[in-house]
Request: fold
Amino acid sequence: MSELGKSDLVKPAGGQNQPEKNGAAGRSTARRGAWQAPAGVAAGTWDYVNRDHIGDQYDSFVSGEPLSAVDRKIISRYLPAVEDEGRSMGSSRAQEAPIVVDFGCGTGRTLLPLVRDGYRGLAVDLSESMLANLSKNLSNCGLEQTRVSMVLANLVELSCLADHVADHGVCMLSTLGMIQGSTNRAKFLAHARRIIRPDGRLFVHAHNYFYQWRHPGGVRWAAANLIGSIRGSEQIGDRLATYRNVSGMFIHQFRRAELGRALADAGFPSQEWFGVEAGSAEPVPINRWHNPFRFVGWVVVGR
Reply:
């Protein structure tokens, strides 16, 4: 198994086994007050990624969460065992483990199972704490640090990553929705298309705009959100919420047509969709026609 060469993946060089720092404002600078929000990052989201306890407690917080099982089951359907994929390549690349880039990797709950299955990982996150805990989790799982290259970066600003360095990409658990502004989300998806090889897949997990209507006050929120979009102060689907005691966390909830169009415009026109039901660990394959209020979100496999 060949080791992951950082010089082949990340344009600027960095210290051994340390996350490359690109596209992210420095934490110490932010705390001194001379801070400018990174593109697409809301103030509450910046607060979230800079709280060390969020990363330190993340694994225990999401333990048993069925959404992880849904993601894993879908990814396993499309990413074959490393040996099978190697044989199907029929080239010199058959001797190399495929690379999966995890956009918004957190502590590695999506990426680590893939690395255990023989893949190499490219882990990208805006939180130093998350990446530090990912490194610990690699050691705890008995995996070599060289199997994963870590990059501290804003997903909107990924020019630090070389073209076509990953075989596949994942962006799970509404990470795409944490990017503020449709223009910024489009920039990220364009980077993803550039970073993933032309025949590679991108897995995206996003929240459903219409499911929010089912919550108490959901229709009232939708009406206020519509008024805000008409005034130009927000976009349809934008919401601020308190999450893990951090207020002002930004989340964008997608209409299905909106998400499909964003992926197609970025270069992922071939899409397979799965519905995610609240509290269920089983993905539901869906076609064009389905109840828009049924699913809490979707996982889309784009190509």
About this structure: The domain at 6-302 is CATH 3.40.50.150 (Rossmann fold). The chain has one domain: 6-302. Confidence is low (pLDDT under 50) at residues 12-17, 24-32, 85-95. The radius of gyration is 19 Å.
